[in-house]
Amino acid sequence: MGVYKHIRQVWKQPRKNLGELYRERIRPGFIVVRQRVMRGGHRRTHVGRKGRRSKHYGIKITLAKNYQSIAEQRAARKYPNCEVLNSYWVAKDPIYYWYEIILVDKAHPAIKSDKNISWITSPKHTRRVFRGLTSSAKKSKIKKK
Asked: Are strands 59-61 and 96-105 parallel, antiparallel or unpaired?
């Protein structure tokens, strides 16, 4: 019960120690999404195989991506009109990792007119999360080498 009490507190208020990200939440054109990713090993079953299913039917998969980049990609698929700016870890429980993803609405007039963030509206930054251009994806690339 202690873990769920902690998660309830996390849901109520954003993390205080992330100064810049906290200030960007209240600005128009920014969206903060909380995304969960299942922890632990991942298994893939054999698709299309007929007959008896053995006990060890699934294939165990080692993830090539980290959980944070998976959460970013899921949020980007859910909100196709937004681009992922960044994300950070919020909590974990026995089943899930929880991340908050900061999305930017490219079509919002406040984003287009702001010179600090208008770079994300250019076509070369389209779907950057799927090309590994966010900070979490870059970190996972470095670890693999």
From this structure: unpaired
pTM of the model: 0.72
The span from the CA of 108 to the CA of 112, in Å, is: 6
Contact 20, 106 (CB under 8 A): no
Question: Is 105 strand, coil or helix?
Answer: strand
> The domain that contains 69 carries what CATH number?
3.40.1120.10
**How many whole angstroms separate alpha carbon 120 and alpha carbon 76?**
14
Is residue 51 a part of any domain in this protein?
no
Residue 52 counted as domain residue:
no
Could you tell me how far CA 128 lies from the centroid of its own chain?
13
- What are the pLDDT tens digits along the chain (145 aa)? 566 666 666 666 555 555 455 544 567 888 888 999 988 777 666 666 677 777 766 666 667 788 999 999 999 999 999 999 999 998 888 889 999 999 999 999 999 998 988 899 999 989 999 988 888 888 877 665 5
